[in-house]
């Protein structure tokens, strides 16, 4: 029981960082990015290649994932997403859905459908605290996630760009009036959002294999986390991540493995139904 | 009864006439008639989706749930109890309609992205359930319908042309339902709800009931398409029948590329996309796995950016279609 | 005689803010009552609360002896009360007639609703623009179509939220004539309007609100002379100016 709780928290911290990116994109651009999980997949591939050809541990390779996916995200926002920002929701939904299909299949073409994993020295190691066993890859990923979340918080609070992002999220018009370049800020926020998710993808590589379809496993999970925490709220996404992690590892005790995600979906629909006002407030 | 012979109606009649004559020109067991049948089936699916997505502007990303419910209900009734799929089709429609009504309770307040998310999750729930209840659904392996010769009473035919006729009839029926809804009292109410929900309520529209009616009808028709699909292909599995990109998104995409909320949209969209995909599959699938899907995504993005109102927008801009604004919703 | 509409101590709170704070009043058939108060006084919120768009925090609303609080707006409309929106919330993809027909469907089938829409449009002199796209209308036209749509639900109580804003004096007279004619048929009105001239000429009685509270209820002359009203609303010299115009 406590073991499951600890597992859940470790898993959940990473979910939090992964989902923070999605929340940030929604909070600033007002667009629900259905393609978001595909950037997680891209982050995982970057880290995998960094490990395979540069010998980088995924925990270090994650920095590379962050940078590369940030650049991709920035471009995608400038060339595609920017053009539907004022369009009706249907256009936004299907643009990002189209993006999701494109990225997934581009990966399939480029990397093939093989499952790829890394081997790192600490993969099967762990620490024992009384009855509780903590797997090293889970612990390291959690720590990396927490560090990045802290860095994000500092960036949003302290840096000029970070404050510009928050200003645009609150009131784009007013932000423009005080000299914020909203287009650049939108691209920055989108890039940052997908980069955070890519980073999260990289740090879980030691315990999750990557394939072009890995994003699909995370789509609903990410949205559940974000909705639980309140869309657009960074701290909320972290808390939501930990909650989802706990739910997942606790439900693993009760349900067979295939039904684990089912719990998540049910929670997801229930939260959407019961707290729509909470969601809208987050916007 | 004005505009009985409006250009839009003439074009529509021409379409169905051509569709009815087509089998005469094709080999009844050939590949081409199969593709033509798929065009019509996807047009019917997209039209079913269009009731919710176009008339009510509720962007569903989960219609695969109803499609799959239709396929599973009729097939399981047939395999386990020997009930003919003709009856199973009706049962499937009722089951899917009921599921849509249940789903409406938590989701009717949701709009835009949130509705899309909730419906997407619902289809995923269905997929997970179908995969895990192996004893009943056959699990990930899927279900096959054994072919025991042409038996019209059991919805089994040797000739593809027979399926073609059935699918054509289905498409005509779905289009008729769409037209009745769009031009009837509920059409007014749906458009009002789509455009301003608060104002619609104050003007006396029971917004919940209107949306509920639209989603139940849409789901039931989608389920009928699911049964027909299952009978036509003899085989399906959870991942393909509840597929997000293969079914849910494709239904929506056909309607959007054709023209959201218009009667002709799904027809034009299916006529354009399904053959295109067929060609892409034939030409590209040997090149690299994923290339045709990739192209599918590119087309979707392109369609959204170039003409978000769909191909029908070009038709409606022509002088002879301009005469009546009702063309956009009526015919 | 039982009043047609009665509000008992209704309250609406947003978070900690009391937008409507214990307002009670009544409205009789064939009566036109003006609701006045500075911007942000809670007039629109009060309207929304009466028709069921905004849930009440506490209090009761009776329409002809039936409790209507807690009902959804379409039920309230069915029982005979509806409102217009301050910024004309028409259905933009529909023609004028389609807008009105939609509302007429509340009590008629499609054929009957179309006929009803024709009648209402004729009454408001809107027949010439019946087939126009709503998007092409001027603001005063939109306000009139909005009123036509509300009338098509065949209300007994109609809440008008600034339908006369942006009207020329001549247009205003026309609308007031329509309202008076409807009043003669027994329709009751609650009217929010910033034009003092219109309010004074039209209303049998005035309600003054400020900070969500009802501060005065009486004839236009009584309310205009009420010290709290002068302080809250007319005190900024606006009254003098408006009076000079009138």
TrEMBL record, chain A:
Localization: Cell membrane
Record's keyword terms, sorted: Amino-acid transport, Cell membrane, Membrane, Transmembrane, Transmembrane helix, Transport
InterPro entries: ABC_transp_permease, BCAA_transport_permease
Chief location category: membrane
Chain ranges passing through the membrane: 12-32, 60-81, 93-112, 132-156, 186-208, 220-246, 253-274
PANTHER family, A to Z: AMINO ACID ABC TRANSPORTER PERMEASE PROTEIN, BRANCHED-CHAIN AMINO ACID TRANSPORT SYSTEM PERMEASE PROTEIN LIVH
Listed name of the protein: Branched-chain amino acid transport system permease protein
Organism listed in the record: Xanthobacter agilis
UniProtKB/TrEMBL annotation, chain B:
Domain of life: Bacteria
Membrane topology of the entry: Multi-pass membrane protein
Pfam families according to UniProt: BPD_transp_2 (PF02653)
InterPro entries: ABC_transp_permease, LivM-like
Main location: membrane
TM stretches of this protein: 35-52, 59-79, 85-105, 136-157, 164-186, 216-236, 248-274, 294-316
Compartment(s) of residence: Cell membrane
Alphabetically ordered keywords of this record: Cell membrane, Membrane, Transmembrane, Transmembrane helix
PANTHER family in UniProt: HIGH-AFFINITY BRANCHED-CHAIN AMINO ACID TRANSPORT PROTEIN BRAE, HIGH-AFFINITY BRANCHED-CHAIN AMINO ACID TRANSPORT SYSTEM PERMEASE
Protein name stated in the entry: Branched-chain amino acid transport system permease protein
Organism: Xanthobacter agilis
TrEMBL record, chain C:
Name under which the protein is recorded: Branched-chain amino acid transport system ATP-binding protein
GO molecular function: ATP binding
Record keyword Transcription present: no
Organism name: Xanthobacter agilis
Domain of life: Bacteria
The entry's keywords: ATP-binding, Nucleotide-binding, Transport
Stretches assigned to coiled coil: none
Residue intervals of the ABC transporter domain: 5-236
Lineage, top ranks: Bacteria, Pseudomonadati, Pseudomonadota, Alphaproteobacteria, Hyphomicrobiales
